[in-house]
Amino acid sequence: MKMGLFKGLQIGLDLGSGLNFKKKTEIRKKIVENGGIISYIVTKKCHIVVTSDPEKCDVSSKSRMAVKYGLPVLRLDYIWDSLDADKLLPYDSYIVGGKSKVLDFKSGKISAVTHWEKPKKYSSKTAFNPRTVKIWKAVDMNQPRFHEENHEVAKYAVFMGYSSSMKCQYTAVLELHTASTPSGLNNKSEVAMEDVSTENLFAYRVICQSGCLKDLEAGKPDHSEVRYVSTADQALTVFAMLYEDIEKKGELTKCKHPVRGVGSPKLQKLIAEVVDVDNDISEEVKELVDHVWREAMDEVTSVLGDIKKIKLEQVEKAEAILVKVRDALKVSSPEKKVQILIEDFYSALPHADKKPNMNEIKRWLSKKQDMCQLIKDMMAVSEMTNYETRACIEAKYAALRCRITQLGGNRKQDIVNLIQSSLESPTENLGVLNVFEVWRWTEDLDFRHDLDRKELLFHSSKVENFVGILSRGLLLPKVIVDDFGGQRSDAGMLGSGIYFASSASKSMRYSSPSKTKGSRLLLVNEVALGSCKDFNKHDTTLVAPPEGYNSTHGVSRKWDKSSEFENDEFVVYSVNQQRIRYLVEFTMHTDIVTPLKRADTVDSSNICEIVEKTSLNDVTGIADPMAKVKPGLIGTGGKEVELRCVHVRAKLVDLAAQVVVLQEYYNNSHQAIEAKYVFPLDDAAAVCGFEAFINGKHIIGEVKEKEVAHKEYKQAISEGHGAYLMDQDEETPDMFTVSVGNLPPRACVLIKITYVAELQIEDEKISFLLPAAVAPWKEESALKLSTQDELESYKMNATRTTVQVAVEMPFDIRSLHCPSHKIRVKQTASKAYVEMVDNQKFGAGFQLLIGLAEIHVPRMWVERHSKDKEHQACMLTFYPEFQSSEVEDGEIILILDVSNSMKGTSLLEAKKVALLILQNLPTGWSFNVIRFGSDYEEIFPAPKKNIEENLQLAIQFVQNSVANKGNTDIIRPLRPLFLLARTEKQRNVFLISDGHVNDSEFVVQCAKQNSRHTRLFSFGVSDTCNSYTLKAVSRVSGGAFEYFNSKTKSKWEPKVKSQISKACQPGLTSVNVEWHQYNDDHPAPVQAPQEITALFSGSHQVVYGFVPDCTMATLTAEVDGQQVSTVVSTSELSITEGL
């Protein structure tokens, strides 16, 4: 059960005398336990009123007050049924009085009572003072209870430095813990502080651990203080206070490197998952990293070429085909079937390699399985190096996600002695070049420390596999076979497990000298064997140890003459029973070692060290070129070529428009010419028809690729044929150019352009706008564009323009107003015909404003095919009216993507957008700025008020950002925001990114689950922006998406202001349309847009669908966490007939 079911709901209880005391107590307890707030008097701050006596609703004072304040009065069953359903149910079937949001929704009104408008629980008290919070010693047995198992580390900070008072290297660690959702403690944050403290339960705690670093690493007692608080806001305030106190002392500085033994186990696990991009490494470790990296990259590129061109889906598909090959071999399928599968494999993953014959198929299968794993490993770590084969060593090291330290002295000798003592023959000539200690934090944390028998054992592989082994650890095998031709220790004689040897001699057989240096690598792993079952016979069917055992042991012939095992082999069947401890670089007596020549590297961090100040001159105060429109056309001189007239015929149906533009050209000259006419189109419009009429011929245009169309146009001109081209400017997509080529002398041609558009709403009126002219620079650039070189080109002037508009609306038309021209009007209740009066200059364009009686009511239109009634299109229009005030003290968290994929122009554009946001932050709001890649860093430990001092720090933080932080792991900065949900205000996250994020499905899922308290507004940058992911994240969280095109910078500032405006208001989320078809045999509806974004004040949504046999739809949405719905049907007057 979701323990926070009623979180945020203030419920007025009207429990009559018919309900006994025990039942009343139980209902109150259930509401409070599930995060609800009980109100014993009904005020405007209540959300609902629940009554146990519906019959007395009319006479009850509480119910009458609910009616007065427009609140719904519900039957008591609503509480119990919602608890049983584990979700908040719609009010519809429970309402017995007051006002229903469903009825509001049906009329298009949204009464959104948002989280930030809820009553403040401490409004009658002084503001929260973090210094008054009681401090507990960590060893105090009387401290408040806290769920030690079910909690998360939401935030942390590690400080280190030399303490003059303690005379030692000193460290301090701050941790903010929050109880995880299953415990239900997060939901207690809605209960008053007195109630929580009485129960001795808190939802949050802040721990400060400090002491000498040596003592902490040795596990000696430290100085730890614990502070317990009830809400996320209080926890953040306490955390920020302690953070700033440590900084002010000046002795300690914040560090990012993990320290063994410091912090709670949960913090150690969290740090283990963080990739440290900035860690310092020794020269010997650098050479090792370069060695394994080049060996792996050379292997991949020699077979596949450029790894950037390979997609993960291809590799996964190829792996699936290999499984089919394996299965086919097991059942002895016909050779032809196996060969077809092999062809499919090479088709899925094209690469340079000869196809195998049946005699070597098993060896080929083993080799290709290894290759696929290697490719996946390289793809997983490649963004850390920005896909650069010459990337800096530091980036390669960070991609391995482990700490590697070279050992010397006695520690190195201990490992050398271990290896020498395990050799089968003292005469074996093995040379140890280097010994490294390897720390993979995830292995340390998951290791089975509880199993008593632990041994240091050996494992080896080819050098090319060590990028994968170090970055993700050893894997259980995917291919289980008796003998696939050999170089696989994990496809062995004790089934599907990870194999180790007690003798280095055995493991070294699976190694091979590298191509780049000639040395080999050997792992020394700590293996938790526990209870180990001995075997002297092969058993390849094992996938787990026998019952009662933790591992298996193939006993060597040395100890048991009857054994089938030549050497001792130990097998574990779970990755958490082993962890890498040491990595040994060695040689055999036949190996020839050559010095590794360090390849030229591209140090991505150094490239960006000189950070130039980002200017906003090209994105602020830039007038929209369309605003520079001047009457008439300004063109180059030349012979007069007449555009005699332009006729516009438009049909408006609700918020949709179909516009036909007819242009009549006349060539007054005595030679054939090319004529050009330029006109603008709104970005919400789409051209759907282009036709020409000349000399009795009717020519219909075809849509073709731009280059093909231009080529054919030029060819037709050069051959003396008539040609017509309509072209959209790539840099200014709202501009179209019509070119009429080879217009004969004294000839007339009629061009017909048809386009459809969605209309906008201005001041509650539907606006139909026809722009007449273009901005001079756009017109000039369009006229200068060469479409052919055979004829002279001339600019055309439109001398006469007529406009006729047919209007058809779903409700009574209250007003028709044309602010630009005089018009003639013929009108009925819901239809009108509008014509522009003759002899008027078209000037700056034509605008028609239409006022409706019910503009906010959802409505539906149907258009049927004239010949086939089964074919029809539906249109559903929704323009909700919001009844809510804007937020005065909200919060914005700005998250800036500085991963490697953002290098160059992408980061520059992202910084411009970030600075625009900071420049336009609402007064009185709190904010924070976060940079992220594989990990994240924030300018403030907690959000701070928008004052000049804080703003300047944030601006400098953005200015200094460089794109060298590895992968695009957005869940890192989002995780603490999701864990620390605000209690009284909704959090707005502004994400600036190219959208190429890791695990996008999981990110979208998390955004959806946390949408009640956190909205994500995404800002897409880069020419290769993944808009799909950014749109999805914003859609499911109730935010909005904007793409910042580098070619239309005049729109950047308005877009930023629009996003901030939306963050200042509530929204309508989870909007969905269910089309009702009266015949189940019809095809499923096709809808556009398929996914509907959140709606905000002043925005509207038009949904189109190809839905046979449908005149009704159900529109659903969420308002303040409650689902509401209404049925929208089509009247006979709203059914039209198409072509």
Count of helix runs: 26
Strand content: 25-35%
Provide the spatial order of strands within the biggest beta sheet.
28-27-31-25-24-35-38-37
Largest sheet: 8 strands, mixed
Can you tell me the number of structural domains? Answer: 7
Known CATH architecture of the largest domain: Sandwich
Find the structural class using helix and strand composition.
Answer: alpha+beta
Spatial shape = globular
Q: Radius of gyration in whole Å, from Cα?
A: 36 Å
Poorly predicted segments? 113-125, 181-199, 479-491, 601-610, 626-640, 773-786
Q: Assign the CATH topology of the largest domain.
A: Immunoglobulin-like
Oligomer type: single chain
**What is the assigned CATH homologous superfamily of the largest domain?**
tricorn interacting facor f3 domain
Strand segment tally = 55
**Residue-averaged pLDDT, rounded?**
80
Straight-line distance between termini: 54 Å
**What top-tier CATH class of the largest domain fits best?**
Mainly Beta
